[in-house]
Amino acid sequence: MKLTLKLLLLLLVILNQHVDSGSIVKFLPGFEGPLPFELETGYIGIGEEEESQLFYYFIKSENNPKEDPLLLWLNGGPGCSSITGLFFENGPLALKLEVYNGSVPSLVSTTYSWTKMANIIFLDQPVGTGFSYSRTPLIDKPSDTSEVKRIREFLQKWLNKHPQFSSNPFYASGDSYSGMIVPALVQEISKGNYICCNPPINLQGYILGNPITYFEEDRNYRVPYSHGMALISDELYESIRRACNGNYFNVDQRNTKCLKVVEEYHKCTDKLNRFHIISPDCDITSPDCFLYPYYLLSYWANDESVRDALHVNKWSIGEWVRCNRSKPYNKDIKSSVPYHMYNSINGYRSLIYSGDHDLVVPFLATQAWIKSLNYSIIHDWRPWMIKDQIAGYTRTYSNKMTFATVKASGHTVENKPNESFIMVQRWINGQPL
């Protein structure tokens, strides 16, 4: 009898962990006192059997949650947890930069959180990213196009559970590899609003930072960018331009001249921190490295008390890693430009921004595909200001697209969070940057 009762209790625990849930988190290890904002974490089951359990962090707007926009934030990778954005780019908490001493790393409040103007869902996707997991072995390898459908399904189910946000203006947002996902997601939501879905998503537009858009072309712009930033000489730039015909990294092995000058290019640039060229290229386990908080994050997220506080299902994942690149993934969207075209035709607003010290996706690459959309310029290139200081440069187009650079920032603009906050706040409010 006792054994049967124990088995029933165990079954109830397991079943309970398979139910879509959202739980309010009032305290987090490492943060002193109650959280000064409303945080909800939970899972949404995706698929016919809801075998995929996508984990999310939802933070209500600190301003007017009933009317403020609802943003979805995706980090890149693919396979990087959205807590990267929450802690390092645009959330209300950050890891305190201090040497790890064996205890739970400390958290501090920020002054630049986008939650001061918007409700934000930070989503871990695809399955295997962050705390998201699958209850059964995956039959099909995740891909760009399948993720777009899964995220749309996630949003639909999330809004069904949070109907009070269904009328809020919705924006999809993210950076880096999410440049392949977000434009396609916007198209998917737009089409879905016409043919199905109750409630419809009040889609207004999208926000992308340093987005990968057409990887082969994006990468080729590293060479002219390197020349413009004085990383390679005039002579080497002219030689590589003549020898390689604009194709610098997928070189025909018979083109020995191109191979030789590309090798010289790599000698000049391989020791750089490609994510932020004026920052040192260092080991993140060193407290002197500007990315040391990434190292601290792994200790924080793998602490049992943290998982308990976040209501992470026990036994759902093993070790938490910030970016899980070990999972198979099919990058089946070669270029997101056609999706930008569709979204432009359908009148959705967009903000595309670039850290101007990013060598991974140089701003030149982003400018090039925006120009290829062939929309007229409404407001030409000008500095945008914070008080009396230049924060970057901007230009707007007739397709409701705004392009902006953030001065002296890198691939994820995380070293200029105040500037990115002001930029997005102005754009969300429909003001000129």
From TrEMBL:
**What keywords would UniProt list here?**
Disulfide bond, Glycoprotein, Signal
Q: Name one GO molecular function term.
A: serine-type carboxypeptidase activity
Q: Which InterPro entries match?
A: AB_hydrolase_fold, Peptidase_S10
This protein's source sits in the domain of life called: Eukaryota
One Pfam family from the record: Peptidase_S10
State what protein this is by name: Serine carboxypeptidase-like 7
Please state the span of the N-terminal signal peptide per the UniProt entry: 1-21
Q: Could you tell me the Gene Ontology terms of the biological process aspect for this record?
A: proteolysis; secondary metabolic process
Report if keyword Glycoprotein is assigned.
Answer: yes
Sequence similarity:
Belongs to the peptidase S10 family.
